[in-house]
Design a protein that fits this description.
The chain is about 65% helix and about 5% strand. The protein is built from 19 helices and six strands.
């Protein structure tokens, strides 16, 4: 009797999952806000559960984010096929990374098997690239800035609650302290570095909310009392999130938050007097904190933060440990083709640090990209971020939060690999670049100035409020009929 390649229970699960996958594809194609909420919510759930839980085991474990990433990638590729690359020229570096990742994954499957290549590539490459491409190709008529802001702040709120719950259960300890739960040594920090960066970026979104071009054009420059109170409330919430970031003791995120805060002070539109006043206020707060610390006002919390900071100064700190690993990985022999296009996924990251064998990922995304996608992949990644930055600058002060998010990501990549939730903000930057490009193409020529001429802001405002027909390609739907008639 010939046996089935999989057991009947797994086969039944596969047939049951097909309608769910179809429903998810429909959600990703029609409801961008719900899809982004699912992507961010799945990451929050993984942190709350202490790791991802396999939804299916068919020889290779399939996680919920695997299914969501596949749906996101499929929908994004269909959008590109329908709209053509003409309207998505800014996505060429991202598509280059997708192509290089696909090629490296296929080579890894051929050499090391599906499980080894898939485990190596899916989280830091396929998840990240699929989510970024999905967000970047969202229809221009979508209120994407508002959707991402709300979903991001909801995730930040969830991580804040998880942090408070963790401290309530285990107490707040220094990162150098060994904390044991049920006989197992665990990280004293209740949430990982990725969640801490979400909190810091949430603070930036509160300090400088994303503003569309139409909103900027329609603002009168007046600040009524209600808006002033809202701004003060956002500033207070941002300060509370930054306090949580400090208490979480992820030192790389400390540096990222400091870089974003300095960039906020430098880049935000303000008069010279306002800028000086904010600098004086910041110095005063820091001086007060140092004074309170010196007299022991922070108690055990101050001691924990001091221990965490001093750990970075030692010769056996985690940063030194990472640097030694980077040196060993770079010194490993490799061919010219591997320098250009990387080694296949599944090759491993074996290196010797202080006489011990280490096999985990490099803890540096730039090096991670070089090892798997080569110098060509690293160049595509840098071009992608330069493009996102330049377009965000051209879009005006309403996208300041996106520039700050880019800075935070680039700092985080020094000590961590790309995390899936960060792809949402990168994709939003690229989507905003498409919005700006549409506005530039539709600016009136000098010979057509008159009462019947439409400005770029009018086109973008109209595109934001008119529903986008689902059966028309992206290149046609860049603006609704009322805007195209201009």
């Amino acid at each position: 009797m010939r046996h089935l390649p999989v057991d009947p229970h797994t086969l039944l699960t596969l047939f049951t999952a097909l309608p769910l996958v179809g429903l998810l594809l429909w959600v990703f194609a029609r409801h961008c806000g719900t899809a982004i909420g699912l992507l961010l919510g799945t990451q929050v759930w993984a942190v709350a559960a202490g790791g991802q839980t396999a939804a299916l085991d068919i020889g290779v474990r399939v996680y919920p984010m695997d299914v969501l990433a596949v749906c996101a990638l499929c929908v994004a590729l269909v959008r590109l096929w329908r709209g053509g690359l003409t309207g998505h020229a800014g996505l060429l570096p991202l598509l280059t990374l997708v192509a290089l990742t696909g090629w490296s994954t296929l080579r890894g499957i051929a050499n090391f098997g599906l499980q080894a290549a898939g485990n190596d590539s899916r989280v830091y490459f396929w998840y990240f690239l699929a989510i970024a491409l999905y967000t970047a190709t969202a229809p221009l008529g979508t209120s994407l800035s508002r959707i991402v802001t709300r979903a991001w702040l909801a995730s930040a709120a969830a991580y804040a609650l998880l942090s408070l719950a963790g401290w309530a259960g285990r107490g707040l300890h220094s990162v150098t302290t060994r904390v044991t739960v049920d006989g197992v040594t665990v990280d004293p920090r209740p949430v990982p570095a990725g969640a801490a960066l979400v909190l810091a970026q949430g603070a930036m979104l509160l300090l400088c909310p994303l503003v569309s071009a139409s909103s900027t054009a329609g603002s009168s420059g007046h600040h009524p009392p209600t808006r002033t109170r809202q701004a003060r409330g956002r500033s207070l919430l941002a300060l509370l999130l930054l306090v949580l970031v400090a208490l979480l003791q992820h030192r790389t995120v400390w540096v990222a938050a400091a870089a974003m805060a300095i960039a906020w002070w430098v880049l935000r539109p303000a008069r010279t007097g306002q800028r000086v006043a904010s600098a004086i206020a910041g110095v005063t707060v820091l001086f007060s904190a140092v004074l309170l610390y010196s007299v022991g006002a922070f108690g055990a919390i101050g001691g924990a933060l001091t221990d965490s900071f001093m750990e970075t100064q030692g010769t056996h700190s985690t940063f030194v440990w990472r640097v030694l690993g980077w040196q060993d990985l770079l010194n490993a022999p490799r061919s010219a083709a591997q320098w250009l296009f990387g080694a296949p996924f599944g090759s491993g990251y074996e290196r010797s640090i202080a006489g011990g064998l280490v096999t985990v990922s490099p803890h540096d995304y730039y090096l991670h990209v070089v090892l798997r996608l080569g110098l060509v992949g690293l160049g595509a990644l840098l071009v992608l971020y330069v493009l996102a930055w330049r377009r965000s600058v051209q879009a005006g002060s309403g996208t300041l939060a996106l520039r700050l998010a880019i800075i935070g990501q680039l700092v985080l990549f020094v000590a961590y690999s790309a995390l899936p939730e960060q792809a949402v903000l990168l994709g939003l930057c690229l989507w905003q670049a498409r919005v700006s490009a549409v506005g530039e193409r539709r600016q009136p020529s000098p010979g057509r100035l008159g009462a019947d001429t439409c400005t770029a802001e009018t086109v973008l405002h109209t595109a934001a409020v008119v529903p986008r027909p689902s059966s028309v390609p992206d290149s046609v739907n860049a603006a609704p009929p009322s805007a195209r008639s201009c």
